[in-house]
Amino acid sequence: MLKPEKNYICIMVQTNTSISDPHSENLLNQYHSLLPVFMKTSSVATSLLKSNFDSSGLIVAALEHRVKTEESLRGKLALKGNKYNSIYDITDIVGLRVITFYIDDVDKVASLLERYFDIDWENSVDKRKLHEIDSFGYLSLHCICRIPEHLYCDPSFPEINKIRFEVQMRTVLQHAWANMNHDTGYKSGVEIPKVYLRNLSRLAGMLELVDDEFSRIRRELADYRRRVQNLVASGNLDEVQLDGDSFRSYLAIKPFDALMRRIASLNQAEIHEVDLSCFLPLFLGMGFKTLGQLDTMVRDYSEAAYQIACFQLGLTDIDIVSSSLAPQNLCTAYIVKVGGGWAGLKYMLDIINGPIEGNEEMARFLEAQTKDLPFMNQ
Predict the structure, then answer these.
(1) Which of 24, 57, 80, 177 could hold 19 in an S-S bridge, CB 3.0 to 4.6 Å?
(2) Are 165 and 95 spatial neighbours (Cβ–Cβ below 8 Å)?
(3) Average pLDDT along the chain, 378 residues, taken 10 residues at a time
(4) Listed residue (160, 6, 2) closest to 95, CA to CA
(5) Phi, psi at residue 283, to the nearest 5°?
(6) CA–centroid distance for 371 within its chain
(7) How many domains does the chain divide into?
(8) Are 260 and 183 in the same domain?
């Protein structure tokens, strides 16, 4: 649930929340009569926002929502009840908070809000435009929204499209900072020694730098992945370091498919596609550092891998083969050709299958199976 802002808590402590003026009492009566609508608005807005996050692929750390309690509303009205003509003028009775992992995602959330909800820009606040050194935890973006009828309407709750609600957007670090400051009493109106204020301000600057660095690193990683994809697509594999991102891009061009189809044709077998990402640690362990080196091995040892498959499948009636057979036979051919022996084959099986009982026996069998094949004498 959303917590009240810390300044507001200070007001609640220092102010008598009893209300005597008829106007504020009328607003409270309106609040009570519309409370089911407020609850419904909170639920619907949250559901719509979550659905939009899912459809857009946007991942957030948390999505919180709450409806202001009567006690909290009384405190607000005691302070500035005359500001509101009706309960519809109070825009934070229903509140949502979106906590993002990255600064950039705050703007993405705001863009989604603008796309789907009606935004009251006059009452929305972008606190990120503040530049005080101690304001890090309060650099949230606050949008005042309303659910349009074309997006959702319910004849049982016709007022739902009139109610405005507040959506706060901030990062995980900003959220943590705001909660920490609330607990310490910082900026709550309570005097604390200047040495602690200075240290908190220094920490605020450090956290803001960390927030910026997380976003910068993510942007650079995205740029790196795009460069890798372009290099792989253009065939410039010698320039691409072998790692998780590059191997996924390499698999996307299906480097083992030609060999796999050739192997399957031995028995006119069906190919059962499996995830080949488990071969990455094996290729790295075998000493390949670039996609170019790996691709050279695929070209140079495809015939040897096919010879192994002929020996394995030639006298069988197997009609379904795993797509992992092609890279496994490539690794088998490479290991025995360079002298890795059964120990190298066991290493391969331990990585592919896990260190299970029987890998050593299978490794010795593979070594014996391949030693007399034609590629070993070439």
Answers:
(1) 24
(2) yes
(3) 38 46 91 96 96 93 95 90 92 95 92 94 75 55 94 94 95 83 56 69 79 88 86 88 93 95 94 95 96 96 95 88 96 95 96 93 93 88
(4) 2
(5) -65, -40
(6) 49
(7) 2
(8) no
Nearest-angstrom CA–CA distance, 301 and 204: 57
Separation between Cα atoms, residue 297 and residue 301, nearest integer Å? 6
Please say which residue of 188, 216, 241 terminates a domain.
188
Which domain range does residue 345 map to? Answer: 253-377
Q: Which residue, 155, 188, 221, sits at the end of a domain?
A: 188
- Are both 165 and 259 inside the same structural domain? no
Q: What is the pLDDT of residue 286?
A: 95
What pLDDT was estimated at residue 153?
A: 93
Same domain, 362 and 281: yes
In the numeric block, the tokens 């091995």 are attached to 297
Amino acid 8: pLDDT: 33
Q: What's the CA gap between 162 and 174, in Å, rounded?
A: 31
Spatial CB neighbours of 52, under 8 Å, sequence gap ≥ 6: 58, 112, 115, 116
Amino acid at 63: L
* Same domain membership, residue 276 and residue 144: no
Residue 1 pLDDT:
40
